[in-house]
Amino acid sequence: MGLNRREMLRLGAYGAAGAIISTAASSSVMQLYPNSQGLDPLAPLPAQPQVRVAAPSAPTGIDPQLFARAKAALDQHQIYARDTLAIADFSKPSSEPRFHLVDLASGQVESHRVAHGRGSDPAHSGYLERFSNDFGSYATSNGTYVTGDYYDGKYGLSMKVRGLDWSNNNAEPRAIVIHNAWYAEDDMIPLHGMLGRSEGCFAMSRDSQYQVMRKLAGGRMIYADKLA
Q1: Parallel, antiparallel or unpaired: strands 84-89 and 99-103
Q2: Which residues pair with 224 in a beta bridge?
Q3: Across the chain, how many H-helices and E-strands are there?
Q4: What is the DSSP-derived secondary structure letter of residue 36?
Q5: Global pTM value
Q6: C-alpha–C-alpha distance, residues 98 and 125, integer Å
Q7: Rounded Cα gap, residues 55 and 201, in angstroms
Q8: 102 has which bridge partners?
Q9: pLDDT (tens digit per residue) in 136-148
Q10: I need a surface site. Which of 63, 76, 84, 96 has the fewest CB within 10 A?
């Protein structure tokens, strides 16, 4: 059965009930199975390439300069899915929700905590001190990413990402992904005042990861950077 690009994006996820994966060209098409509540809650929303950005100013809670950079990256890399994007503001500490999901039509923002790499914060201060794209750095890389396939890995259901800039183009071979981790759960904050550190991945709580992956699946963009 032949699938066009829109159908492939719509079927681009599988859930806890399982999936059948077949590879076609450079993307994987996944067969969804219904669970007790209907379709898998991780099923991505259909891409809306013609969405018009509601306002030139930054949505509430996002630095205007960082938002401007993210919008410029969306155009520069000609990202097809332009309804939702993510901005990871690593100027903020890991104790704060700094991974922002932005609805570009309404300007609404949903924010989550995300860990950074231990190579970016060797003193474990809770602040990202430096970025690196180097192998073995265990650091976070800045730049533009697009989401890829789901897969079952060390931390369970995870999502691949691909780096589009010179500063993060080693993301795939470095196995930088979106996953959940015990050290990124919200209960780390009252205990330690910060999240733990990843090896460069976008590590989140399980609840946040599922919400993030569902809204970003299907080749949507993540822009990661800091201003100072």
Answers
A1: antiparallel
A2: 88, 143
A3: 4, 10
A4: T
A5: 0.78
A6: 16
A7: 31
A8: 85, 109
A9: 999 999 999 999 9
A10: 76
